[in-house]
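Below is how a single chain appears once it has passed through the pipeline. First comes the sequence as given, then the structure the pipeline wrote out for it. We keep one example in the README because the format questions we get most often are answered faster by looking than by reading.
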Amino acid sequence: MRILGEASDQVVQLLHRREVDLALGRLTTPLQHNDFDFEPLSPEAMRLVVRAKHALATRTEFALDMLVSWPWILQPIMSPARHHLFEEELARVPDHATPADVVECASIFATLQLLQNSDAVAMLPKSVVRDYLRAQLLVELPVEIGKSLSGFGLLRRKFKILSEPAEYFIALLRKYSASSRYWAH
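Resulting structure:
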């Protein structure tokens, strides 16, 4: 077993090139359902977050347009989170502008480290930041995000028979994702 921390568009490419047999992510283009089976496991609500000592951490009210002047850590432009949420959310803001100070980062782990050590803002899945919020390392900003990403789930090539350990791993993923208390906290 090999565990990689990649964005959905990257894991789909790994599946397509047959470098991995199974992935957790989402389909990123409309025709990928022809090549891959997708089994949803959980919805993915997004949160705007900053480090706990950030100047915005104690603010109780502001709008998305107020955040444009701050530095941002964003996923690559073709990732679903950036394309479908960030760019669409900004488009809803009158006279919107894309932040000028952007670090593009495909690694969730690197994003979390950069976020904790800078004054940047990031939009990340609730499941990713949940423990950082509990530990008070990050703070969620009270900005309404219009929608969530489509749920993430199991991705595998159509008609691919997986090994017994892979099927066992899938069974464990299904078990834990079925538990609403696991994903809700």
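Residues 180-185 have pLDDT under 50 and may be disordered.

See the next section for the split statistics.
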